[in-house]
Fold this protein.
Amino acid sequence: MKAQDIMSNDPVCVTPDTTLNRAAQLMHDRDVGMLPVVEGDGSAKLVGLITDRDITVRHVAKGHKGSACKVREAMSDSVTTCRMDDDVSDVMNTMGKEQIRRIPVVDERDMLVGVIAQADILRRADNAIAADRAIKEISKP
C-alpha cells in the first residue's frame, strides 16, 4: 500500500501571512491539529507547518496578545515529508523515528498533495500490528 492510498487529499492550508487567529479557527472548523503552510495563496509549495501546540506554546504561553500575529511567528519550517509513492510501512517508520503525528505528502516537484495522520494509518493501513507499533513509537515520551 502506498502513501497516496491512505492520505487525506486536498488539506486546508494557510500561508505565513495568515493570522494565528484564522489558523486556529480553521483547525477548530476542520477538527485538525495541524495545517500545512504554503508559500502563498494559490501555491502548493510547502514551506512549513503550524500546529495547535505551536500556537499554544509559541504564542499564547509567551503572552502574545492581539490578532495581528502571523503564522510565520509560530510555525515550524523544518518539515519531514513523504512522497505519494512511498510504502505505508516506510511512512510509519519515518513517523515513528521522527515522533511526528502527521506528515505532509508531496509530489515529485515537492508540491503538497495530502497529509497522513495517525488516524489515517489506524483506519487504512493493511498491517494492524505494524500500525500499532508505529503509533507507539510516535507517542513515546
